[in-house]
Each structure stands twice: as C-alpha cells, then as structure tokens.
Amino acid sequence: MSPPQRVLILSACMVLLLAGPWLLGTYQQYLLNLVLVNIIIATGLNLLTGNAGQISLCHSSFVAIGAYATTLLYANVRLPFWLALPAGGLVAAACGALLGLPAIRLAGFYLALVTIGFLEVTQILVHELASVTGGVRGMLAPRPSVAGRLLATDLSLYYPVLAVTLGMLYAARNLRYSPLGRAFDAIRNSEAAAQALGIPIARIKLAAFTIAAFYAGVGGGLYAAVVGFIDPVEFGLWASVRHIIFIVVGGLGSVTGSVLGAAIITGLPEWLRRFQEYSDFVYGGLLLAFLVFMPRGIAGALADLRRGWHRSRARVAAIGSPSQ
Amino acid sequence: MTFFAARDLTVRFGGLVALRGVDLELNQGEIWGLIGPNGAGKTSFVNAVTGVVRVVAGQVVFRGCRIDGRPPHEIARLGIGRTFQHVEIFGDQTVRTNVIVGLDRHVGYRFWSSALGLPATRRLEQQTTQEADGLLQAMGLGAYRDVLAKDLPFGILKRVDLARALAARPRLLLLDEPTSGMSEAEAEQVVETCRSLARDRGVTLLVIEHNMRVIMELADRLVVLHHGEKIAEGPPDAVQQNPRVIEAYLGTSPVRA
Q1: Would you tell me which residues 27-66 of chain B have a C-beta closer than 8 angstroms to some C-beta of chain A?
Q2: Phi first, then psi: what are they for B82, rounded to 5°?
Q3: Residue of B72, B92, B93 with shortest CB distance to A196
C-alpha cells in the first residue's frame, strides 16, 4: 500500500467509525459498544495466550474484577468514572500478578487447572461478599458522565468507549513490536533459546499475566457501564471459553485477530438467534473447526492471502520485465 | 583475572553421571574445540555452564565471578552465549525478528515508552532493525531476512542461530555443532566467521564439533571428553596422537584390514 492509499483507507475507516453508528438503531448501538468492550478483552488475552503462549481459563474473572472495582469506585467512592476505570484496570492487573506468581512455574494442563481454580475462587468471593458485590443478585452500574454530562444513550457512550478501545489497541500494537512483545513471542517459541539470549522468562510471563488482566479489567469496567448491570453469572467458565474463541477465530498472536474475532463472535448470536438452543454446539463447533482447519484464524488467513497476492504480483512484474 | 574456568565440574542426571570432575580454563580470544564420542557429556557441559542444568559439585567462574547456580538469563547477560545442536529457533517469526530478539537485550524493555509509541522508541526500533539487517548481511543471510524461520532448511537455521547468538554480543560463545547439516562450502564460511570473531572482536569460542576436519582447522586447542571425564587437552596435533583419544574413538581391539 502506498502512503496516500493508506491515508485514504484510514480516513474512510475513521469516518465510518465516527458517523456509522448514527445510522444504526439503539439496539445495534448497544451491540456495537459490546463489540468494542470485547475487543479490549480479547486483545489482552491474545497478548497472554497468542503471544506469550500461556493458557488462561480465568480471563473472565479479571473482567469481573474490573467491572466490580470500577463500579464500586465510581458509585460508592464517587471517583470520576474516567479515573475509576483505569483504577479498576489496575486492581485487575494486581490480581493478575497475584495469579501469575504461581502460574509462571506451571505450563500446559497444570496452568489450565490453576486458572480454573482462580476462576472458582473469584466466583465464590463474589457470592460470599454479597454486602459489597450484591452476591447472586448482581449490582446496578450507573452510567458514566463526561464533563458533567451524563452519557445516558448508547450512542453518547459509544464515542468514549471507542476512544478507550483505540487507545488500548494502539498500545497493544506498539507492545507487539517492542522488546517486550518480542520476548513474549520468544518464550512461546522456545524458552531454551529465550533464556540463552538473556530473557528473564519468569518476569516476562508475569508481565504477560499482569498486562492481560489490565486489559480485561478495563474491558470489565466499560462492560458494566455499557450494560448498566453486573450479573455474576456472566463471568463463569463459559465466558472464559468465549474469550478464547474470540482469539482463536480471529487469529492467535495478532492484534487484528483480536478485533476480528471479538467483532464476529459478539455479533454471531444476533445472526444465529433462530438456533439459540444450539448455541453451545455452534461455538464448540467453531472452536474445533478453526483449531483444525485454520489454526491462525481469520487474521492468519488474510495475511497468507496478502502474501500470495504480493508474490503473484512480483511474479507478473518479473515476467513483464525484459531483464528476466 | 580468570576469563573462564570450570573447576571439578560434576553433573548428574539421577544415577547417571554426565560430567565427572571436569577442569577447563579458557583465555580471552581463544578458540577451543570440545570433542568426544556420542554421550561423552559435551552438550551437558554447555548446559551446565549456561545454567540450564544444575551443577552438583565444582564451580564455574567467568570474569572473576562464580556463575554456577545462577539462572540462565543472568548468565547470558554476563556475556555467555550459546547455539543449539538441534536448532531452537523462533519458528513463526522472521529471520530478522529472530536476530532482533538477540539485540533487544541491550535495549531493555522500556514498557511505558514502548506502549505509548514515543518517538524515542521508534528511533530505537529503527536502529535495532538496521543493526539486525547489517548483521544478517554480514552472515550471508540478507536474502532470508523476511522469511519465517520455520520455512528454512536446517543448514540455514544453524546460521540464523549463530547470528542471533552474536546479536547478544557475547564474550564467550558456546557453539553446539555449528556446521551440522551444512555443505562443505557453508561449513567453510562458518569457520571463517568464527575465526574473525575471535581475532577481530576477541570473542572466546568453545566449539563442539563432530566434523574432525573442521575442528582441526579451526581450534587453537582441543579438549576431549569421554564418559563425562576429560581424557585429553592440548593443541590439535598432540591430541590427535594421544593414545587415550584414539582408544575412545576407535576402541582397543586391533582392527583387521
């Protein structure tokens, strides 16, 4: 892509992102907010699982922690929402580091079990601390405001959520192409080679768990604001599996993959409403099909397509030139 | 100050003694060959020095400090690099990224400035990429820099492994069969690279090699392991004539023609 082409495409995307929602109904606007929230959540998990290679079945717990922490800080402590949100993310990140401490000594099956344990503990705590969390009855999450104006409609909430999402995506992309992001990929590929190059494996894994939890926490805080209510049932094992489906379908290890996966899978239930009672079957089938036939997800397939296109163009150019 | 010394080094895997009381002292800028029949403990020696396997007894000293018992990444940061017998490459990354990971050690992790994409970080990334490309060019790998490592043949991956280890700028480099899977011409190029490393940059090399022609040509001195024990040490010519070495390689019973 030439630079002017890139500018053109980018500005077209911006216009679509900014003006598009005006054309949608309120329910679709609500759905769009959910898509953005899930993109943030998926991006965090993808850094941990897709890049650093650490399996986690408790990503939804960090979403829960972020949702409760943000809402409590906003509604009870009366912090401004846009301060409560990063604070909620930090609380989730601290819990992520706490989980990381034992988790960095484990791998594969044992790591999966520890994360399920963490998920259960979080669920039990939410139920037991009913005076704070509302227990099984859940908790109302008041709408945030910007500069004293309450963001009452889904459309008004859309823009700040979009800004946060774009910021988080920008940071994730930068991290991917930084020494830390390369260290993530290195330890997934070969721990032996990584440590021989001076990469402190334990510390890098801990960083991955912490960053992933921060993303989940911020996603959780926004989720509560978008939905207006925190229902603890939403943060069970099934939610964690859904987060894994996001990144497997979208593409492991790719920021674009997180975006595509979260967008498609969040929209899917709407398209599949007629098959609602078979939804577990559909999701399970999707996960299996992608793992078997398209292990690099949609983003991986797109990258292959693009590479093939460039190669065939190069071949055409080579045939056309007289020197060949 | 001792540059590198292993003293009375012992490594055990359960009941199996992989290394028994091995002594070895290297000076800066020397090229050493580490040879011995299969199962002699050559790779175990490399793993023990780099902290991957636990040293049961004895000590390892590098530039005046004890390094045995330290974690592998710290030992690497002190300036001991290695390559792998069976390549341990970052397969789904490009050749260039493989090398950049080696360079990153000198850049550091700079979390916030990376995440925010500050201009200083961008410049640093550009510098790192240029440095990586220069190194790849020098190693004759320039043509492969955008290829995913998993798509390359073994012989080229051995060179990528070497380039990546060099990117971390080691003072002591342990090479585990650097020319395996290579043609004679490619092996010759690796020998040249090793020589210029030692001569021009003062890197000390300890090379495990099965290709005797290569190692006799390359090494200033040889050390021979057999069943985990050092059985000979000295200049290549002398070691070649050593009856214990001949016995280890060929056995004792007379060979009938």
Answers
A1: 50, 52
A2: -150, 160
A3: B72
> Which of B53, B67, B73, B110 to substitute to test the interface with A, most A CBs within 10 Å?
B73
Tell me the chain A residues in contact with residue B93 when contact means C-beta distances shorter than 8 Å.
182, 185-186, 189
DSSP letter at B51 equals T
Whole-number Å distance between alpha carbons of A253 and A184: 10
Least-confidence region, from B30-34, B141-145, B182-186, B220-224:
B182-186
Q: Collect all residues of chain B within an 8 Å Cβ-Cβ radius of residue A195.
A: 52, 71-73, 76
CA distances (Å), origin A171, targets A35, A66, A187, B123 = 19, 19, 21, 17
Whole-complex ipTM: 0.90
Ranking A90-99, A262-271, B205-214 by mean pLDDT, the lowest is A262-271
User: Nearest Cα to A191, choosing from A299, A97, A104, A84?
Assistant: A104
Residue A129: helix, strand or coil by DSSP? coil
Q: What is the DSSP letter of B145?
A: T
Average pLDDT over residues B60-84: 93
Element (H, E) at A34: helix A26-45
Closest B-chain CA to A50:
B92
User: What is the rounded CA–CA span in Å between residue A232 and residue A220?
Assistant: 12
Cβ-Cβ contacts under 8 Å, A86 against chain B? none
Q: Which two tokens stand for residue B251?
A: 């056995």
Q: How far is CA B60 from CA B48, B63, B223, in A?
A: 9, 10, 17
Type of residue at A122:
T
Calpha distance B101→B167 (Å, rounded): 8
> Are A179 and B110 inside 8 Å of each other by CB?
yes
